[in-house]
Amino acid sequence: PDSAPENWQEILREQLIECLISPLHDKDVLPTGEPKKAHWHVVLSFKNPTTFAKACEVFTEIKAVVPPEKESRVKDFRQMARYLCHMDQPDKHRYEMQDVVSIGSIDYASLCMSAADEDDMLDQIFETMDNYALDSYPKVVRWTREHNPEWKPIVYRKYTKQISEYAKGLHYESKQ
């Protein structure tokens, strides 16, 4: 953080390059137990193939540390996104997902959701539908907007049909 200009995130926005910015990693520790210097991770996402030199230009403009070329190419964007909060590193401090900054149209929450996360969220949705007699898709949508906006990717896009069918089943059961 010391080397970055105060407006470094604005500089990234002006570049019109999609990226993800981790929460400030200020609780990371070295293998010796000493605290690491506070830092951010920035992951750029180019729509077209680009060169290492082009990526370096962006990082240089915000005075970021540029990793060696071999380490700079992200092999799995989803895994890198999950790393921003140490989701799969139980030996490291876990940072909050809501503290990740997304510049551009990257849907961070959807990107990071694992199959187990989706199953857990569907269980929550179905349980809420049971408990509050949400027996139509519009009722579930209204509930999601008012109480659980983190459900939006599941309710609005990914499992719309399954949730609608469950709601129909609840409606049918209530008429028996």
From TrEMBL:
Domain Plasmid replication protein origin binding, residue spans: 2-106
Q: Which GO terms describe its biological process?
A: DNA replication
One Pfam family hit = Rep_OBD
What is the superkingdom listed in this entry's lineage?
Answer: Bacteria
Molecular function GO labels: DNA binding; DNA topoisomerase activity
Report the InterPro entries cross-referenced here: Plasmid_rep_OBD
Q: Which GO terms describe its cellular component?
A: extrachromosomal circular DNA
What's the protein here called? Answer: Plasmid replication protein origin binding domain-containing protein
- Organism (species): Slackia faecicanis
